[in-house]
# Entry
Amino acid sequence: MKKSVLSFLFALLLVTVVFSSVSAQKAVGDYKMALILPGSINDQSWNATNYAGLVASNEKLGTNIEYVENIQAADYESTFRQYAERGYDLVLAAGTQFDEAANAVAAEYPDTVFCVVNGSVSTGPNVAPIFPREYEGSYIAALVAGEISENGQFATIGGFPNQAMENLLSVYEKVAVEIAKERGIEDAAAVRAYANSWDDIALGKQMTEQMIDNGADVMFIYANQVGLGGIQAASEKGVKFIGFSGDQTVIDPETVVASVDFDFKAFYTWAVEKFLNGELEGNMVHEAGIAEGIFVPIFTDNVSDEIQERVAEKIAEYETGEVDLTVYF
# Structure
């Protein structure tokens, strides 16, 4: 009898422990998550792309990720702190410019995971940046640019000269020039400038006008809203523009003849699911790129079928390991 009673009590204790463990787990919708954006969700570029990722995660995974937009550099740390103080489980921030602030704040809030989208620095167990290998996206853009340029003069504008930006612009410039020279344009060349801004539309227009006046016939800009000014200038002066990070062909398909869209719907869903599964580890950068389907080329009728086929062939060659883009850094 004593043995039976002890067995019953042990079984009851085991059921209680298991039930307590299961009940302690949060439902997906109960996790508190937020996304910090440096610009507007209507910029048709970087911020809009990230917002689309948030929406996709909420729809596909059942999360309730909130967002705040137009956060300026001086407010990065305080914004991180506000969410961490309120007990948020995951705080995402869109852009490598948030790296320093995230790492500075994270140690004070070990129960919050800080995830910088496009980030490249992790100095703690709760800092888990995710990084699209953007130089793979700029490689696709270069494949198009090199084919459509008439004079082989390429101009690029970046937001700020961080390492990731320099790498992706270097890949774009060198590959575009290489392709133009293969087409017989011997004096093909590229020039680069930095806006040191993500949102100065007027500056983007002014810089683009100057580059076009100096001979550029294909523009490539990765500087969020700055690029909107560049598209306006390119349209007024009749030169071609390669969109990046979002489908910018919808702005002006006669000017933006092709874009490399970042499928951040897939990227965010992948990252948030990793977090929910406890796999978004700190002290490392989590990367994704062409192989994960993150970069999608979009063409207008201004890019011939023949060029589109050649671009597809080059992408396939990269996927099989025949091309090493790091040699262009």
Q: What stands out?
A: The two ends are 77 Å apart (CA to CA). Residues 2-24 form the longest helix (23 residues). The chain has a mean pLDDT of 92.
